[in-house]
Amino acid sequence: MIKIDAQNVDFYYGDFHALKNISMQIEANTSVAFIGPSGCGKSTFLRLFNRMNDLIPDTHLEGKIFIDGRDIYNKGEKVDTLRKNVGMVFQKPNPFPKTIFENVAYGLRVNGIKDNEYIEETVVKSLKQVVLWDEVKDKLKDSAFALSGGQQQRLCIARALAISPSILLMDEPTSALDPISTGKIEDLIHELKKEYTIVIVTHNMQQAARVSDKTGYFYLGELIEYGETRKIFTNPEKESTQNYITGRFG
Amino acid sequence: MAPVQKLGNIDLKKRTSQRFAFSFFTLLSYLVVAILFVILGFIIIKGGSVISWDFLTKAPEDGMTKGGIFPAIVGTFYLILGSSIISFPIGIMSGIYMNEYATNGKLVRFIRIMTNNLSGVPSVVFGLFGMSLFVNTLGWGDSIIAGSFTLALMSLPLIIRTTEEALKSIDDSFRHGSLALGATKLQTIRRVVLPMAFPNIITGLILSVGRVSGETAPILFTVAAYFLPQLPGSIFDQCMALPYHLYVISTSGTDIEASRGMAYGTALVLIVIVLVVNLLANLLRNYFAKKVKMN
Predict the structure, then answer these.
(1) pTM to 2 decimal places
(2) CATH code at A2-93+167-245
(3) Which long-range contacts (CB under 8 A, 24 or more apart) does A206-210 make?
(4) What is the mean pLDDT of residues B42-59?
């Protein structure tokens, strides 16, 4: 089943042509990695899926993006409804200055859920999903800032999962973390893709190879190659891809 | 051998000039504190003896050479309250608009320049403006409401500015995190941004209260009464106010020499009010800063 369907997407920051005629289909319950050198447009493309680029003034999109068959840039589409369905984890862990519990409950509360029992159940479930529960169960009322960077990032994933999205976007989620925390999050991605569609931007080639089913290689705003991760990393079709993954540039 | 020697000399020189510079800076900052203490000490010595229960709770008597300053204290509190009710919401909401909503950079810059200019307008001009608009054109007469509006106008630029700065210092990653969870912009501001910015916003509010409580010129033509033995009964009544009372008994009282002590007492009360307000602000600020972290 096709979850995300981008058709002939062009994107501009002012006059700068950041994405050039990109088409890509992402299947449900798979994980896809976007790789490519800095400034190649992979993060920009990712942020189109939950319309985070709307926040940047003077940008402009051409082409269409469908999620579950709905044109998400159609006039009638509500952006907050979209974002409920398409969760996002950022490069730097960004928990709110609230308690651990309230961080996870936040998404539920802003989406109008008042049933405290349900909120509590969901918070516990989400924290267990990201394997953080055992570490925080005795300090749910402590500030989220007291957690380590890796714990904070898992908290942010739990926060995103609590509102039961079907897609999880991850924008270099481990670039600010140590190797052990990174390993934990990669394990998590393996678990999560059973239930969610995961799109991850990464600068770490091994990470892309480890966590993704498919990989897209971006260069200068173009999608150079997109296919099975195994094939991209062992036998890419394009020379540019070959050069990048072998570290000859980037 | 020689170059090392030379280097050593430069080192010594560098350190000496650094030591000299920092001693100078330290001295200057101590001087500022010292001046503050001298002023405070002076007022306390001159005015302390006047302070009594009667002074704080009675109206002036005998051509303001005796009695107390109760109506002026109450009047000042009314004006603080009145102007705050007007200026806090308008100022905070304008600040929120400018930092969170306005997308038109030129418009925001224009508003910012205008508010900056407004904060540079001498307070006596605000007084004149308030008199012409609120007292005469709107026909409110010399009244608490006219004075409150005038003071509110005067303190708006400061409140807008500090609110804007407080919001600006909140990293966008918090906003994005909230928006990415399907929160609306308003929810994001109310639940994430404002609580974080609140401690700094409070500072701005309190600074404005300090300014409002001490200003004489804006209330001169809009509300302040020369002498009023009874308390105001409604917002359309005139009232006495500490700074104006101080001005009156030091310059145009019935017997300036005789009311000298009263003047220092009034000054002391005014300063204590401002200090207490500032102290309160700090406590509130710390309280909210802690709450934001833990909650």
Answers:
(1) 0.82
(2) 3.40.50.300
(3) A207/A33, A207/A174, A207/A182, A208/A33, A208/A35, A208/A233, A209/A233, A210/A186
(4) 85
